[in-house]
Amino acid sequence: MIKTLYLGIDPGKSGALALVDECGEHVDTFRLAKTLHDVSDWLKTYRDRVLFACLEKVHSMPKQGVTSSFKFGESFGFCQGMLVGESIPYDLVTPQKWQKLMGCRTRGDKNVSKSRAQQLWPKIKIVHAIADALLIAEYARRIRV
Prior knowledge:
Elements: E1 5-10, E2 16-21, E3 26-31, H1 36-44, E4 50-56, H2 66-85, E5 90-93, H3 95-102, H4 110-120, H5 128-144
Parallel strand pairs: 1-4, 4-5
Antiparallel strand pairs: 1-2, 2-3
């Protein structure tokens, strides 16, 4: 039986894409540090099963340099374009909104989201790079189920 999937995307510099199934089980993750083609090819293998996605709505941060702000926006735009190109329905979600529902208001401390992700998926090794994407995927599942 083909399982329905939910996609979460953290478009940050060390961000990732993550998939959970309809039961909230981890399916796969993919780091955005790979090439654009690699990221796109990864998503294409799952596109027919992804029911819904959430992309973290990001903005530039105070004291963030021009170059890093540009790269951040470039990554966000790439992810949004990829979702549109693959006809995957999605919502933009602020960090405050998904963190509140997932019970992990970080206030900038990435260890909070990493710890919460490890609680939800104890069988996989959680690293900072995938923690937010997993939690965003679970957020997408919870608001759609």
